Amino acid sequence: MKYVFIIFLSFNYVSNHSVLHDVFYFEGSFPQAQHVTWKSTNFKTVLSWEPKPSADYSYTVEFSVVGRDRQRNHHCVRSSATVCDLSSSLTDLNANYTADILSEPPLGVTSDLIEFPYTTSPRFCPYKDTDIGRPDFKLEVSEDKKKTTLYVTDPLTALFKDGRQLSIRDVFSEQLHYRVTYRRNKSTGKVSPTNIIEMSGLDRGESYCFNVQAFIPSRSFKKQLGELSHTQCSEVEDPSISDVYSVGVIAVAIFLILLLIAIIIAVTVICCRCRRNARTTGKEGLPLRDV
């Protein structure tokens, strides 16, 4: 699409001489934005596109709820940037939004043109489409090693209300669950609707490794799970004898040890007596010495 800008001509007549000044002419085509995408994590929503503009043109972003009037973010008007942060502008989290990226003259350059080339973004719904980042959690093992508890911290969002930064729990409420994945020799898992997750029935004396991720079952399948947390593993302490063996096994072992000690003592006593008897017999069989 081609555009021809106005030629400004002005003449000053001084001493019968004409002077031409303030001449500006430009003819060309503005490249349209391409590869327009929404990138959103924890409601930090950025619109991005290509290519980087030259000095001859800039970009302006207009956005709106589908079917409503378009608005502009003053940070994204006639800019040379190829990103626009709309986190604070998309106030209706359940609405579907679209955005137009207009290719316009640079800031400060006027034009009589009414329409400029533009590219429309895909639809985006913050509540349904934002990605959920990785959560943090604290791992705690009970003294008897029978229970492991995970304390999960809800990730913070880019949203604020009454001066307070909102967490994903504030936004999704009871829709937010956490899925726990843990493993030893094989993988298994558990889903919990709360931030405090108790894991019982684990083998004592074994180390288990845990991962946590947000799970929102009301969303589409591709958007149900958030980013996987960093892995944390429980520590392994040297098991006591009672953890490894049953009471019956321990009792049999003690009996065998005592029996072995008794046998050793009995053999030792018998050997000592045999030696003593042998010495006595030997002395009685010797002839008497002459006096």
TrEMBL record:
**BP terms from Gene Ontology:** blood coagulation; sprouting angiogenesis
Start and end residues of each Interferon/interleukin receptor domain: 130-235
Q: Which UniProt keywords apply?
A: Blood coagulation, Disulfide bond, Glycoprotein, Hemostasis, Lipoprotein, Membrane, Palmitate, Signal, Transmembrane, Transmembrane helix
What domain of life does the native source organism fall in? Eukaryota
Q: What is its main location?
A: membrane
- List all membrane-crossing ranges: 244-270
Compartments, record wording: Membrane
**Topological type in the membrane:** Single-pass type I membrane protein
Which GO cellular component terms are attached?
Answer: plasma membrane
Q: What would be an example GO MF term here?
A: cytokine receptor activity
Start and end residues of each Fibronectin type-III domain: 26-105
**Any matching Pfam family:** Interfer-bind
Family label: Belongs to the tissue factor family.
Q: What does this protein do?
A: Initiates blood coagulation by forming a complex with circulating factor VII or VIIa. The [TF:VIIa] complex activates factors IX or X by specific limited proteolysis. TF plays a role in normal hemostasis by initiating the cell-surface assembly and propagation of the coagulation protease cascade.
The family database entries (PANTHER family) matched by this protein are listed as: INTERFERON/INTERLEUKIN RECEPTOR, TISSUE FACTOR
How does the annotation summarize its subunit structure? Interacts with HSPE; the interaction, inhibited by heparin, promotes the generation of activated factor X and activates coagulation in the presence of activated factor VII.
| Protein name per UniProt | Tissue factor
